[in-house]
Design brief:
Blueprint: E1 11-14, H1 20-31, E2 35-40, H2 45-58, E3 62-66, H3 72-82, E4 87-90, H4 105-133, E5 136-141, H5 154-174, E6 179-186, H6 192-205, H7 209-217, H8 229-240, E7 251-254
Helix pairs in contact: 1-8, 3-4, 4-5, 6-7
């Protein structure tokens, strides 16, 4: 019988995890037995309540540590504050859409800092811990936009391509050390943020919900179905499992066929 809690005893840090994909990944890792460190830049009662709920639901240790992923020092301190790191999931990210010539410099800098540089800083802080224990898993949440491009998303596309490159480099530097580094490349995922956009899109295009999802939001996703946060989380659990011990330096697309086009 497969172990129902294969990650028991492992400590997982998930950045940008008080909502959306990050929270979904954290929950799936906790269901697999990992102790969880949630993170975002806020420090609210509800953030800490999320950690308590995961601990109660999954019978694991869970806590929330606030850290601004745009700050290199804060990125490294997050890992230090956790005290140990067996599994690192770099998920924190932001988006801004604008033509290149009009793209605000401050938005470019913020997207590169949060979506790319934070993964470098947390990885640099976590690797010594993983090497000390002789085991580690790094899972970078990239995007279909880490493998292809769309107009008006120059900073996001550049950052996510960078995440894929960083993933490959870290995998080579840790090969043979029982440490793996891989990237998950989601297409459109049904998160609360995406769900909130649907009514506005319906109004703008004069379409019902199913049509606007299929024809507008998922125009580039051949399956015409959103991925779910549980599916992204399940992929992360697989990458952290012993079944994936020889899977490193690669990307796994969860995009309904987007990058097959």
């Amino acid at each position: 019988m497969p172990d129902a809690r294969p990650l028991s005893g492992r400590i997982a840090i998930v950045t940008g995890s008080n909502s959306g994909i990050g929270l979904g990944v954290a929950r799936e890792l906790a269901r697999a037995g990992a102790d969880i460190v949630l993170n975002s830049f806020t420090d609210r009662d509800e953030d800490h309540a999320l950690a308590r709920q995961i601990a109660q639901d999954c019978d694991v240790a869970a806590r929330y540590i606030a850290a601004d992923m745009s700050d290199p020092v804060a990125c490294r301190r997050l890992v230090e504050a956790a005290g140990a790191c067996d599994i690192l999931v770099n998920n924190a990210g932001i988006q801004h859409v604008c033509p290149v010539e009009e793209f605000p410099v401050e938005k470019w800098n913020a997207i590169l800092a949060i979506n790319l540089s934070s993964a470098f800083h947390t990885t640099a802080a976590a690797l010594p811990m993983m090497r000390k224990t002789g085991w580690g898993r790094i899972v970078n949440i990239a995007s279909a936009h880490g493998l292809t491009a769309s107009p008006y998303k120059s900073a996001y596309v550049a950052a996510k391509h960078g995440v894929v490159g960083l993933t490959k480099t870290v995998a080579l530097e840790t090969a043979g050390q029982s440490i793996t580094c891989n990237a998950i490349c989601p297409g459109y995922v049904l998160t609360p943020l995406v769900e909130a956009q649907i009514p506005d899109q319906m109004k703008t295009h004069g379409m019902d919900r199913d049509t606007v999802v299929r024809e507008v939001m998922l125009a580039r996703q051949p399956s015409k179905q959103f991925a779910t946060v549980e599916q992204i989380g399940g992929t992360a659990v697989y990458l952290c499992s012993e079944a994936a011990a020889q899977v490193t330096g690669t990307t796994i697309s969860v995009d309904g066929g987007w990058t097959a086009l």
